[in-house]
Amino acid sequence: MLLSSFPVVAQDIEVSATLLKIIESVEIPAQQSGVLKMVKAQEGTIVDRGEVIAKIDDEEKILEVEKAKVDFDIAAREAKNDVNIRFAKKSLEVAAAELMRSEEALSIAEKSVSQTEMDRLRLLVEKSRLEIEQSEEKTAIAKLTAQLRDAELQIVKTQLKKHQIESPIQGMVVAVFRRTGEWVETSDSVVKVVRIDRLRAEGFIRNEEAMIELIGSKATVTVDIPNREPIQVEGEVTFVDPEVDPVNGQVRVWVDLENEDLKLRPGLRASMTIQPKQ
């Protein structure tokens, strides 16, 4: 029997029951409790990622940040202050020099310096050495205190930033749950934002077609709108459901597509064709 030498060309796959859906939808919560000082977002507004869309009253927290800054500045100056160490070292030099002179005097003439005086001078040298150690220990503690004050400052700054409610995604505001002047608790939803510049076309294919490696394959999505030209967008297969639907025996697939001109809307029905990778 002769085998064909021609490669098998994968056929395009028609996807049934295709529906455009939202990929990202976020209800943005308050991260601090307080009175809403400003709610900038309105339904239908397009917001950027990181844009401030609401703000909780932060006057008290601003004062806490200023206090934390002053506390850190004081601690930083104390950590840099080495006057006590320099003074202790100078005192040691003087005490050691005086002890040396007394020892030289004793080597020349016995009993020129009393034993009591020698004991006092030796004690003074040891005291100066201990004062250096103590001053160095206080400086080390001051540096640790400065690090602690810096950490406290960063914590208060983070808490202050949480008074600003920012959008984590780029999209359209579709709901505003709280208004200016209202009290919000932590985790209360303030605004809902959905991403509309990138949508997902979801549909079904036959089980035998799902056996082909489809992830990454190109797909064409066509939306027919009455009294308008059909809209055709290219996308890519991002997901093939490992489970077969027990009702229709088909497998769910996702195709993500760009909606840069915002002509497509979630909820629209479409037709879709997948071009399997060769």
What does this structure look like?
The chain has four helices and 14 strands. The strands form three sheets. The protein has a six-stranded antiparallel barrel. Strands 2-9-7-4 form a four-stranded antiparallel beta sheet, with no helix packed on it. The protein starts with 12 loop residues before the first strand and ends with a strand. Mean pLDDT is 90; it is low at 1-9. α2 packs antiparallel against α3 (115-161). The chain is elongated and about 120 Å long. β12 and β13 (250-258) form a beta hairpin. With 278 residues, the chain is of the alpha+beta class.
Summarize model confidence as the mean pLDDT. Answer: 90
Distance between the termini: 26 Å
Shape: elongated
Return Rg in Å: 38 Å
Q: Could you write a compact summary of the structure shown?
A:
This protein is an alpha+beta fold and 278 residues long. It contains 4 helices and 14 strands.
Question: What is the topological layout?
Answer:
Layout lengths: L12 E10 L2 E5 L4 E6 L6 E2 L4 E5 L2 H22 L2 H26 L6 H47 L2 E3 L4 E6 L6 E2 L4 E6 L3 E9 H4 L7 E6 L7 E14 L5 E9 L10 E7 L3
Antiparallel strand pairs: 1-10, 1-14, 2-9, 3-5, 3-8, 4-7, 5-6, 7-9, 10-13, 11-12, 11-14, 12-13
Helix pairs in contact: 1-3, 2-3
Essential attributes:
disordered N terminus, 32% strand, 4-stranded antiparallel sheet, 6-stranded antiparallel barrel, elongated, 278 residues
